[in-house]
Amino acid sequence: MIPTTADAYQLLHDGSLALARMEENGFCIDMDYLQRTTQEVTSRIKEFERELQADKLWREWRKRFGEKASLGSDTQLTELLFNVLKHPYPEGEEWRTNTGRYRADEETIGAVDLPFTKLWQRCKKQKRLLGTYLNGIAREVVNGRVHASYNLHTVETMRSSCSDPNVQNQYKRDPEMMKILRRCYVASPGCVLVEIDISSAEVRVAACYNRDPVLIKYIKDPTTDMHRDTAADLFLLPVEFLIEHKDWAKRTVRDWAKNRFVFPQFYGSVYFQCAPSLWEGVCNPAVKVPGTDLTVKQHLRAKGIRKLGACKPAKQGENEPEEGTFEHHVREVERSFWNQRFKVYTEWKNRWHEAYLKKGYYDTLTGFRMAGHYKRNEVLNGGIQGDAFHCLLWSIIKSQRLFDRRKLKAKPIAEIHDSMILDVPVEEVQEVLTLAHKVMTVDLPKAWDWLIVPMEVECEIAPEGGSWVDVAQWVNKSGTWGPK
DNA sequence: TAATGCAGCGCC
DNA sequence: AAAGGGCGCTGCATTA
């Protein structure tokens, strides 16, 4: 990576200083809660282990591995389950690790329907919570704060990284784990936690690269929704139906389309990889198409889609998806997605990759020349990822300067690629939200003329005395910020 | 005993 | 034809 413009150099210099100040500020930790929770989780793990060791499977385990038997070893567990006890194990390369061993992930162990394995998995999860997360915080706390390290020079795409502890990967999607872990992170006395993120940052930046009018329309026009339209295609439901049953769709088909098709496709995934995870949703017996008694699977069956299909990597003339399979259907959707709906995006991908192959580098919109040996998907994603982060970095730098100039005590304390977390004195909340919002939605597009789509942000804020668990969305209503 | 590799999994 | 982009951390297994 080489910065090719003065602005690019400046961004890194200013960014280093901004992140250094963020490190110095640190994130306040509720130490009483941390200690209490560490003890609770520790004893929970001990209880789980006692129960596991009382199971007859543990006797088999000891018989097989003797003194070396270790409850934490997933290699030993797979050996016991699939070689000694001969539990069925799926055929095929995708079910093996890179070194040809049995996989020991959540899915494969979870497929063995025994009380022992269920318990083992719950135990494993608690061990991760303790070993990686709670201990990770405790190890780094100084005077009640963690001062994570942020890097601008380590990531291939010019994103940032974070370590000691890595504040960028704390539980969020698992509600149970999220509530336990994020409760550790609190605002400083007299302050509240504010989190501001750029809505679909990478999609916006992607549109700046490819200038696909359809993608731009999806971004600009709030009545349109590419995830909803793609869900309609994938699950053969009319768009009007999805609009009518918006809340249902949001939890089900639209969510699957977004997270199991649209985003993976943007990152370069393909139909035979998307289809199995989509199908998992389809097979959920608890999800019924509104107004009918049909599961999504039954609904698709009525449309002539009877099964998933083999989902093998396409080779010339081989592994052709079979007609009437979901895999076949997903391929059709993929084709229309890239050849019809986003055909300008597709043309850009081909041109961009071709140019890279010819030159041996690509230039990003924020002024960095990326020279090196990259695969196709890396070339197509690198600039988007880096520049989306640079939008945030620029915003942090600018916001910090504004806070300084106005003698505000609000401080950025963390950054997660497209969001910044601030420690804000209660009385500064309105001013800080207004300033940060303006920086990200007005000043940023003004400063970078390549930014040809509007920027939008989402603000979340925790009540005074609350923690990172308690952040809830706030919006601006006629000049004043308040709960949505 | 220390260093390294691998697999798994948390986040965007 | 393609073959999900980017990280950091942990525990276990293997190698030096």
What does this structure look like?
The chain has 484 residues and is α+β, with helices and mostly antiparallel strands. The protein folds into three domains: 178 residues, Alpha-Beta Plaits, CATH 3.30.70.370; 108 residues, Up-down Bundle (Taq DNA Polymerase, Chain T, domain 4), CATH 1.20.1060; 122 residues, no CATH class. The protein contains 19 helices and 15 strands. The strands form four sheets. The chain has a six-stranded antiparallel β-sheet with strand order 11-12-8-13-14-15. The chain has a four-stranded antiparallel β-sheet with strand order 3-4-2-7. It is globular. It starts with a strand and ends with a strand. It binds a DNA duplex (12 and 16 nucleotides) through helix 4, helix 6, strand 6, helix 13 and helix 14.
Give the topology:
Layout lengths: L1 E2 L2 H20 L1 E3 L1 H24 L1 H10 L8 H11 L21 H5 L4 H26 E2 L2 E2 L2 E3 L9 E3 L11 H8 L2 E2 L4 E8 L2 H10 L2 H8 L5 H10 L3 H6 L1 H6 L1 H14 L4 H12 L13 H7 L23 H16 L1 H17 L1 E3 L4 E4 L4 H30 L5 E5 L3 E7 L3 H19 L9 E5 L10 E6 L2 E4 L1
Antiparallel strand pairs: 1-10, 2-4, 2-7, 3-4, 5-6, 8-12, 8-13, 9-10, 11-12, 13-14, 14-15
The protein binds a DNA duplex (12 and 16 nucleotides) through helix 4, helix 6, strand 6, helix 13 and helix 14.
